[in-house]
Design goal:
By secondary structure, this protein is an alpha+beta fold. It contains four helices and nine strands. One of its GO terms (molecular function) is transferase activity.
Amino acid sequence: MTTDVRNIGVSGSGEICSTVVQIPLNLVGVNVRESQGYELFHQYLKLRQDVFTVQKKWRVWLSAQNDLDQYDQHDTCYVLAYERKTMNVVGGARLLRTDRGGQHPLPGRFTYMIRDAQRGLLDGLPSELCDNVPVCCADTWELTRLVTNGSIGVGKEVLRASNTFLASRNAKRCMFLGPPAFMKMARSMGYNPVPMGKIAGNRDGRFVVFSTEVIAEDGDYPAQLTA
């Protein structure tokens, strides 16, 4: 069986590297190991499962076995941070463009997580996360499911790599959903996070939605890994 995993780019000069991959819809959830990119993706799903499903006991829409949900689709991009020597994934995040689903999605049709929470479609998230209706725009992306194994600096590496990738795709802004500490980390890296609503909470924790401008960088995101 051959895979068609797209290794969109890889960067990093230290012990921690980052790559961005896109997984075809028909391979999501399939246990194949013929692609380096897919192996990293598989490790990221396992890390998500350990943190969100096992530790936090979040309910997942599709599968409690690997934390897959309705936003893991063929148009989803994944930023994966891994150790250069061992190729072990130590963190990652999920990226989606906010124009998926169109300006006027059909009732019950999923678009992206922040917008669907505002629409009242997600039982696990408060609907009052944003003061205004979240955007539907090709140059604005959403980052969710940020997770790390607890190693120092991994979260910052994921954000740095996400910005580099988004800049290469001509993105202007990125929206984030996570705990309040997430926004504090972004500010410490030189970003100017703008809250899009008040901090909200439920049995799963405290959440805040914020956005930042994508910092333009010179050159394209280098594609080095091969599937």
